[in-house]
Specification:
120 residues; mainly beta; seven-stranded mixed β-sheet; 12 strands; 0% helix
Length: 120
């Protein structure tokens, strides 16, 4: 199993970024997937999750700004981040769920992460 994130970088407040997670080594379409983030000195925080059937969940501070589409034919999970804030600065990584249903913190594989920095 491999999860490879990309798309991080520097963005200005109010800007946008789209993260990608390329998955391989498992049947991507039948598993729930999610994004989490961790900033220095802070606990890991769930950003968003999506079931195999497309039911989505968002963290409280992300709903309305972030979306989590998945393209099963490309084995790729995305995180579209809009209206970015400095407090969104963190290492973002994607996670593979243990089943088709999204359950927070119920994951068995993680990527290495991609850094997002929001600053003017």
């Amino acid at each position: 199993v491999q999860l490879v994130e990309s798309g991080g970088g520097l963005a200005q407040p109010g800007g946008s970024l789209r993260l990608s997670c390329a998955a391989s080594g498992f049947s991507f379409s039948i598993y729930a997937m999610s994004w989490a983030r961790q900033a220095p000195g802070k606990e890991r925080e769930v950003v968003a999750g999506i079931s195999s059937g497309g039911i989505k969940y968002y963290g409280d501070s992300m709903e309305g700004r972030f979306t989590i589409p998945r393209h099963n034919h490309k084995n790729t999970l995305y995180l579209q981040m809009n209206s970015l804030k400095p407090e969104d600065t963190a290492l973002y990584y994607c996670e593979k769920g243990r089943s088709s249903r999204y359950v927070a913190d119920d994951n068995d594989q993680w990527g290495q992460g991609t850094q997002v920095t929001v600053s003017s």
